[in-house]
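step: validate -> pass
step: tokenize input -> pass
step: predict -> running
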Amino acid sequence: MIKKILITGGAGFIGSHLVHNLIDKGYKITVLDNLSEQIHGSDPERTSPLYNSIKDKVRFIKGTVTSREDLEKSIEGQDAIVHFAAETGTGQSMYCIEKYTEVNVQGTALMLDILVNRKNSVKKVIVASSRSIYGEGMYKHPELGVVYPLHRNKADMLAGDFDVKYQDHHKLELLPTSEDSRIHPSSVYGITKQVQEQMVMTICPTIGIAPVAFRYQNVYGPGQSLTNPYTGILSIFSNQIRNKDGIKVFEDGKESRDFVFIDDVIDATVAGIENEKANGQIFNVGTSIATDVMTVAKTLINAYGIEVPVSVTGNFRLGDIRHNFADLTKIKAKLGFEPKIDFERGIKQFTEWVLQQDVQENKLNDSLEEMKAKGLLK
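step: predict -> pass
step: emit ->
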């Protein structure tokens, strides 16, 4: 029986939602989190709503997955681990390479090293993987069938051509990406998530621990960080709208993502903890619907009722993909998972929550200047 669960990164967006769900179900939760300033602000113990929503409900350890002492203390007595702790953000990962590798790869390696070499009671490890490991994902070629295109050509993008092409320049049809698709990440972040997943799925079975990996698509909803300018397009656009700065859309606005609401992500994750059919398996978690960025911008403007200009800049970030959306066939069949919150309903809940929060400073330009200085924003 799993009764005691450690959630690394449990004070974050997904982690804190999972905490509340599991506590309601009677689990005893330990959270290991470093309360990163980028996510929680400069005075998290006082001002972070995510941390303050869980601090009195869990055994909280302020620490880091890069510390053996912190991890050993956190793992002791646990029946399962949900491993969320990670640096996130495709763009930032391309110039904070050591930091992303240390936290995401070394932190996971250290956790597994402890599980292998120190007596413990852990029966299952859930690892948060990412759609970023697929890179551009799966497409259909008119003659060759299923293909997996490489990174887009920078010269084409500088000329305003952002479409994904195959080697022979044939036009391709976008397909939902299944779990057996080719793994070829296009960012350091994606590489680190791939390594996290592979280490957990490889090591855990050798020591009698059941591994489960969830490849989350773009997760959104109430509680996500409104201050982090490096990730979360809905938060970034919301800040631009509420500050009446106008929305700046990269590329041509037709790039798309699979936006999955936080409640659905928690449902899938809990199923992974509780359902033995998840053991040893890797699952996509999304909606199987691709929504383009221009639609996101217009939907948010309508939801807030604040008219701001939307400009398509033609800028692009190296490491970004064009499209990706999930094939959910496997998770539906094995775990009975069906996303319940469509984009329109999810945006309504998200924006209603945002309007209850203070207007945040728009820090996007600072983050873009960082990327430009590194040669990663064109």
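step: describe -> Residues 51 and 280 are 31 Å apart (CA to CA).
step: cleanup -> pass
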